[in-house]
Amino acid sequence: MRSVSVVGIGETKIGRFPDKSLRSLILEAGSKAIDDTGIGREDIGALFMSNFNAQSFSGQGHLGPLTSEVLGLGNIPTIRIEGACASGSLAFRQALSAVASGMYDVVLVGGVEKMSHQSTEAITAGLAGASDMDLEAGLGATFPSIFAMIANRYFHEFGNVREEMAMCAVQNHENALLNPDAQMQKRITVEQVKNGLPIAHPFTIYDCSLVSDGAAFVVLAATDVAKAVSRKRLVEVVGCGQAGDTLTLSSKKSMTTFSATVQAAQQAYAMAGITPSQIDLAEVHDCFTITQIINSEDLGFFAKGAGALAVAEGKTAANGQIPINVSGGLKAKGHPIGATGLSQIYEIVTQLRGDGDARQLKKADIGLTHNIGGTAATCVVSIFRGR
Amino acid sequence: MEKRGTIYTHSVVHSGTEAFQNVTPYVLAVVEANRTKRMARVEGHTDMTDITIGMEVTFLKNDENGDPVYTFAKLSS
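The joint structure predicted for all components is written out below.
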């Protein structure tokens, strides 16, 4: 397998843009990524396009050719990839393997989602399709309620971490204040989180990630090609793992350890030849506050049951032992489903290049992205190293 | 079929999907019965703040979709 590097990144601001079309989101983020590379669009060999549910939210399918047309990519092969909230990182992994295998030298990976123009009920129903329609959504389960059940089980097994969950939200909002692309640039307090609008006990509205529109794109190239054209610090993809799990919550061996995360992470660490303690920063899937805590344990940053205390002790803060979600995460940067995995990669590459401006970390040489779909039923973990 | 089960985990849903607007808030749980776990709605709650893991529930009916509904109430049979 050939070494592969990121040569271009681009994203829109994440937010509620009911008047912006899928086309305009794609055009903005895709053009930024291509212009960032120093490679002409005629050198792009294929497009891997991620989208969760434009078919339901906007009636639009066939996102591959739509994107190719908008970006002027001619007759290159395109494919649309879906894996719920992990769609973006799944598309990234497919693109990675296409370059690593030698099939293409340069490929474009994109993700887009547009949902804020729909009612909350329509969005909740559209998202519920990533759970089991018969065994879960059909009896009234929503994603907040599924992860709320995970939180209550976690409390039962490891103690009540309501306070620390709230701190997670506060910290991600704090980080987003320094990210111009973040949707929610608003400081919040632990009390506000705990006393917010109840969604599914123990979650309030502040424990939940945002309803977002946005797009993010990444250009990948064989590292030999990248070296010749890249104008910025080269960011090599040194590890990538993917694992799955059952679709439904009740069928999982454990609700408080996400085995898809554990296994995808093990693969990625082994491929990169590193251990969790060598990671300088991570973007960790935080669809809900408890999700970030559980995943930070399953990624090996903290022992099982110790993830909440780590947040309280500041270990995950921007100046902590392992900064998590310096972008603001899904909670505050936003969660444009199909674009989320690529938006995480955008942040890591930005940091490794030293382009993080006000939020730039002092040490950013090795970064990790972690992205799950549904009830942790699909997981991709990727590791990046600045050269 | 075993009529009794225990709550493995649960949540009180305050913001449901469109189809469940008229019964919101409602209790969702993963119920363990016959050594298998299954998601179910649980009815008959008077105080939604005192539901705990391990609490015993009784099978009440299958709803119109064939999904199980349990109750906190003690049924006389």
